[in-house]
Design brief:
Layout lengths: L13 E4 L7 E5 L17 H4 L9 H12 L3 E4 L21 E2 L2 E2 L8 H28 L5 E8 L13 E4 L7 H10 L4 E3 L12 H5 L7 E7 L6 H19 L13
Helix pairs in contact: 2-6
Length: 264
């Protein structure tokens, strides 16, 4: 396919860390970057707008990188802003390529034709998800049951919205094998933990875990850290060390070592 979106000066659609690791944890970060392909001219946004929470999950990539190092686990990080295309949204989601995000207009996403949207799918979304699928195939091929961990962050308050008190949220759709025990572990740390907060979870709003974990019967986690908790290297380290310890505990549970297809 001839590239119509990413040019020679643009980075790849995803980044892979620790690819040769023997760990059965696969870390992913759907909103790791606020980059925009050069041809899209920053989507008509200022640098301040593009680098705010509407453009990416602030601090999430840093946590994912440290978790990759602490767990010696592979990680796959999306390479472009969710404003270009949201790598955690299914095709029918209205905010997959949002013309407005948290009340802020995104001029470069207005009145897009199907070919423009498809270029973003073909050159960013699909390669990222193909890489996740290939990594899980390799891990499962070694006889292990992979644990898929998606790292996100959320803003303390949306424009016009109520303050979000949770320091961290753990989200799930049907499969609570890993989410329920992690919530207990985090609450035992004295943290204010949201259960499916600040976001609900499901196949209409999420893509990565429903497709790569639930359809395969894999244990999984969707972790949402409030972004003011991870603004400094020291804070990132604190959260990464805490989460790495709890993930190691989860890996010892029988529920993390088998496939389970939850239908309801």
């Amino acid at each position: 396919m001839t590239a119509t979106l990413l040019g020679p000066g643009d980075p790849p659609p995803f980044e892979t860390l620790n690819e040769g690791s023997a760990s059965r944890v696969l870390l992913v970060c759907d909103h790791a970057s606020c980059r925009v392909p050069a041809v899209l001219d920053d989507l008509g946004l200022s640098e301040v707008e593009r680098t705010e929470h509407i453009g990416w999950d602030i601090g999430a990539a840093a946590v994912a990188r440290r978790l990759s190092a602490l767990l010696d686990a592979p990680a796959i990080l999306a390479g472009y802003s969710r404003l270009v295309i949201d790598c955690n949204r299914p095709a029918r989601a209205p905010d997959r390529v949002p013309p407005v995000s948290d009340t802020i207009p995104v001029p470069g996403n207005e009145a897009l034709d199907q070919s423009a949207v498809q270029a973003r799918v073909d050159e960013i979304f699909t390669p990222y998800h193909d890489a996740i699928a290939a990594a899980l195939d390799r891990m499962a091929g070694g006889g292990e049951v992979p644990l898929l961990v998606a790292v996100h962050s959320f803003t303390p308050q949306l424009n016009g919205g109520a303050p979000r008190p949770w320091q961290i949220g753990i989200c799930w759709d049907k499969d609570q094998r890993m989410s329920a025990p992690l919530i207990e572990l985090l609450r035992a740390d004295g943290l204010l933990v949201g259960a499916n907060e600040p976001y609900d979870f499901g196949v209409l709003t999420d893509y990565t875990l429903p497709v790569h974990a639930e359809e395969r019967g894999l244990p999984s986690l969707l972790i949402e850290i409030r972004n003011d908790e991870i603004l400094t290297p020291e804070a990132v380290e604190t959260w990464a060390v805490r989460l790495a310890g709890h993930i190691r505990t989860l890996l010892t549970l029988p529920d993390s070592q088998r496939l389970e297809f939850v239908l309801a």
